[in-house]
Each structure stands twice: as C-alpha cells, then as structure tokens.
C-alpha cells in the first residue's frame, strides 16, 4: 500500500509559497490604505489669561517672623491656576497667570494698559486704593474685570465703588465687626483703643469705633501712639519699649480689652504683656481678625493647606486665600460657560445663584450692592484659630454674613 504522506507534503510545499506571496500582496495593498486614514483632529485649546498686578517693596515688621513672604498673594493665585487647569484640561481650557509688579508709589496706568494689550481680561489687583481707582475706569472701557485681592479700604466698596471691580479681600469694617462680635459674645464690653499716627491706622481705628457702636461695646478711652521714627528691632529699642509701654498705658481707666490699630507696624507687637493693667490685646496685635489663618484645618482646610505648603514651602496667608478665591471664581464660571466668552463669564459670576466654595464652612456669594464677597472672618493669634465670625446670636434677615461690614441699607455705593 502506497503512503499518502509524501503526496501531502508535496502539495503543501507547492501551495505554501503561493499563500505567503498572497499575504504579502494583501499587506502591501492595505498598508497605503492604513496610512491614508485621516488623523484625529487635535483638541481645541482655549487660553484664559488672568493678570496679577501687584505693588511690592520689601516691608519692615516689628518681628522678623511677621515679614511678608516675597510671593504673598501670587502663590495663592498660582495654586488656583493649577486647580483650574485640572478641570479645564477636560474641557479644552488652559488658564495662564500673567504677573506684573510695580513699586507701591508707582503710576500703574501704563503697565495696566500693557496687560490689557496682552489679552488679560481678568486682573487681580494687589495695589493701593489710589492705584486701583486710577485703572478702574480704563478697565471698564476695555471690558476687563478687576478682582481686588489686597485693599481693605471701605471707600472702594462705597463712595468710590465701580461696577467692574469685585472684592475678594474683606473690608476693615468686616474685620472690625468680626472681632467686636467675639468680644461682645465673651462679655468683654469695655475697651481702650490705642491707634497709630498713620492714615491706615486711623482708618482701622474708625472701623473699631463703628463696631463698638454697632454691637454694644464701649470704648472707655483712646490714645494715639505717634511714630517718631525710632529704631524698632534693636536691643536698645526693645529695652525702651519694655519701659515705655507700661508708662504709656498707666493712665488708662479700667477695661476688659486693649484694642490696637497699628496697620503700619510701628508699635502693636509690643503691646501684649507690656500694659500697665494685665488685659488681653486684640486688633492688629494679639487676637487678630483676618480673611484666612495659616492654622485653619476646618471645612477641608487641611487639603488646601497641604497642597499649598507642598508647592510653596509655607502655609497659606490671607492674601493668598483672597487671590486663590478670585482665580477660582473665574475658573468656576469659565468651566460652566461654553466658549469661555468674557461677557458670558462676567454674567455668570453676577448671576443671583452664583457661589464659590473656599474652605470656610459655607459657600460664598457677592453682595450685589457693592460687589463685596461675603465671607466669615477668622480670629486667631500667631499659632491657632480662636474663633470665626459671625458669632452665634448675631442674626440677619438675608445672611448672617451681612452682619459683617456695611449692610445694604447703609451703603453709599451707587453704580453708574
């Protein structure tokens, strides 16, 4: 019987080259087709530029621990840019921070016009009230929305308010009211007020007087501490202030709390533990009101503090939080507005139902009568948060946050 294996093998050897050649031909024919398939279109990226205009010069402080960091405010804005881009990357949006720095006494108009020419449609302003007012109307005429992240002057929200200037920094009256509520809640109602001789010291002193009248405190005495220009951080200066402060406060009547208004950093740090009568100190020294506190960990604060510290090597300060909030407001509106049209973003921010989360226990909203952001006020010393205002029992028909600062019936703001 003849074996079939040799025949089968011969047939396989005959047809195998034909199959290989056919496969090669098919591959060659399909390769051009694969190469000719159109590539997927690249994702369209919309850039949203946010400017940061800051007036900066190295500042003196009574304590080296209180010298402001070089990147104060800017670091908060940069952190928020990263947060915005985390969400924006899914929507084809890219947020860019454009920082411009000037001296505190400089004319900011030329540099602001350059920022507008570069395409900055949202500008964070960390400048003086005078500088801000010099660019506010220029910004309005160019469709630019300004966020005031640094100036606490009430006049910017009142007599000199502008419809295109929104304020994420609290006012002096908000800070003073937050402090006064806590002192009244503690039943510490009798206060003495020591204020500095510079204009901003006297503005904060006036805010404290208003708060006393508003919440039932009584300022039983006042004294002005004049700035004579003496050395502040020398051995002889420390010895002198230790002797001078008890004498300076010796003639004050009995009181519960010493209020200090020293935004200029001339004497305030030297008041605690040096007064003639041993009493707690509050204001710009001792228990201080602020928009944020570096020790805050409530309401998710640990999360933002850790991210900020990892990126910047320090804890978050009030100006950092004000800048972070402003950038996040733009980001929140942009992600919910198709096309990132500046006019639509502006309208979204001004809508009645707009709010922003900022690790402060509740969503924050704007006061429509002067575009000040409602927000709690932190009360703390150099190491911990003591309390936050508004305090329990201080009620309001619209929002308890409106017990802090100028309320709508009191406002002098009249938008044109």
UniProtKB/TrEMBL annotation:
InterPro entries: ABC_transptr_sub-bd_PQQ (IPR022478), BCAA_transport (IPR051010), Leu-bd (IPR028081), Peripla_BP_I (IPR028082). Residues 1-22 form the signal peptide. GO terms for biological process: amino acid transport. Keywords: Amino-acid transport, Signal, Transport. Residues 73-226 form the Leucine-binding protein domain. It comes from the Bacteria. PANTHER family: LEUCINE-SPECIFIC-BINDING PROTEIN, PERIPLASMIC BINDING PROTEIN OF ABC TRANSPORTER FOR NATURAL AMINO ACIDS. Belongs to the leucine-binding protein family. This is ABC transporter substrate-binding protein.
């Amino acid at each position: 019987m003849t074996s079939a294996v040799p025949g089968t093998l011969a047939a396989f050897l005959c047809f195998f080259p034909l199959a290989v050649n056919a496969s090669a031909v098919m591959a060659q024919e399909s390769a051009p087709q694969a190469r000719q398939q159109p590539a997927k279109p690249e994702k369209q990226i919309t850039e949203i530029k946010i400017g940061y205009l800051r007036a900066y010069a190295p500042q003196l402080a009574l304590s080296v621990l209180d010298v402001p960091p070089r990147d104060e405010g800017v670091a908060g804005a940069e952190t928020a840019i990263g947060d915005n881009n985390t969400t924006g990357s899914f929507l084809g949006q890219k947020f860019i921070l454009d920082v411009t720095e000037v001296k505190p006494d400089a004319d900011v108009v030329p540099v602001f016009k350059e920022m507008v020419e570069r395409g900055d449609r949202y500008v964070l302003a960390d400048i003086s009230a005078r500088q801000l007012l010099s660019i506010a109307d220029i910004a309005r005429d160019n469709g630019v929305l300004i966020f005031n992240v640094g100036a606490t002057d009430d006049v910017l929200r009142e007599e000199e308010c502008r419809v295109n200037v929104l304020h994420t920094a609290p006012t002096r009256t908000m800070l003073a009211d937050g402090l006064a509520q806590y002192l009244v809640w503690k039943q510490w109602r009798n206060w003495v007020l020591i204020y500095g001789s510079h204009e901003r010291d006297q503005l904060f002193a006036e805010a404290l007087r208003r708060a006393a009248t508003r919440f039932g405190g009584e300022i039983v005495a006042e004294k002005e501490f004049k700035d004579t220009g003496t050395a502040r951080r020398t051995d002889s200066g420390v010895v002198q202030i230790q002797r001078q402060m008890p004498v300076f406060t010796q003639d004050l009547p009995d009181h519960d709390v010493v209020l200090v208004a020293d935004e200029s950093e001339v004497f305030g740090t030297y008041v605690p533990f040096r007064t003639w009568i041993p009493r707690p100190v509050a204001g710009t020294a001792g228990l201080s009101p602020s928009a944020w506190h570096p020790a805050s960990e409530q309401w998710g604060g640990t999360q933002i503090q850790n991210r900020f510290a990892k990126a910047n090597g320090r804890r978050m300060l009030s100006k950092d939080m004000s800048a972070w909030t402003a950038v996040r407001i733009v980001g929140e509106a942009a992600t919910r507005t198709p096309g990132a049209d500046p006019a639509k973003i502006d309208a979204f921010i001004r809508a009645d139902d707009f709010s922003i989360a900022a690790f402060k226990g509740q969503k924050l909203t704007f006061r429509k009568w002067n575009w000040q952001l409602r927000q709690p006020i932190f009360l703390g010393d150099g190491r911990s948060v003591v309390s936050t205002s508004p305090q329990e029992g201080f009620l309001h028909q619209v929002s308890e946050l409106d017990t802090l600062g100028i309320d709508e019936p009191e406002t002098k703001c009249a938008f044109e």
